Structures are given as structure tokens and as C-alpha cells.
Amino acid sequence: MKRMALFALLILAASLSAQSMAKIADQLYAPEQLTISVLEVNYAPCEPGERTDIEVKAEVVAVKNTATRLEPGSKIIIKYNRYYPPEDWTGPASIPILEQGRQYYAYMSTYRYSYYVPVAGNASFSNFQDTLALELADIQRGVQDIQENIGEIESFLNQ
To answer: Which H/E stretch holds residue 56?
Structure first.
């Protein structure tokens, strides 16, 4: 039984590692790779298990790559929705709600040249090191869940 649990743990860790590498690839190949300063954030708060639409008005501070010819000083609108997970959620973290007045790395694409959308999931507004830290936290949560499940299975088998 412990071997099966260890095998499941290894599969989980490998899958999360692949997800983190995919997010970093999404960052590396994003058509828009920017540093932005958030001017305004609009969204409606929601309950756990629901989604909310978010609209961000931002100013471009620096450009690493741009497919739409953005320049420092350009004003842009970013739109995305965010899932607010329940407490027992073990899936990937949601895209964060950006904070007014803060600067972020931004990995995005344009939607029909009218606004921008995140392209790297919850890593769309973080640097590579922060992305790996997010993924490590997801792995640790998964390991914790597996350990709890192993404990429950062992206590059931010992009855």
C-alpha cells in the first residue's frame, strides 16, 4: 500500500513539474512581455467556488517583447476572470488580483487588439523565480493531501 502511495506521489510531483515548466514556457514565448504599473483594478468580490471578471488599467513601464508595438508609457487594459477556490481546493492557484499602485511582470497576448489577456495562468504576473515558488507551494499542498489520504487508508486497513 505504501508503495502505491509513493508511486502516486511521484506521478503528482512529475505532473506538477511539467505544469511549472509549461508556465515558464508560456512566459518565455508570450507575445507581450512587459513590466506594468497598475493604475486601476475593477472586479466584483465573489464567494468561494465562483468566478469574477477582472479589468485592470495599467501603464507599460518596460518592454522586453511586444507584438503590438507597445512602448513605455502606453496605457493598456487587461481583462481576465479569476476562480476563487474553496478551502479544500488542491488544484493550481488562480491568477492573482493585481493591486493598484504596484508593478508586475506581465506575460500576455492581445485579444483582437482591443485588450490584453494573461497567457501563463497564475504565472502571468510574476517572474520565473516566483513561478517556481508558486509551483512548489502547489506540490507541497499535494504532498500534504496524499499524506493525509495515506493516513486514512492505513487506519482503515488496520481496523
So the answer is: strand 50-65
**Radius of gyration (C-alpha) of the chain in whole angstroms:** 19
Confidence tier at 54 by pLDDT (50, 70, 90): very high
Q: Which domains does the chain have, with CATH numbers?
A: 31-146 (2.40.50)
Do 116 and 74 form a contact (C-beta atoms < 8 A)? no
pTM over 0.85: no
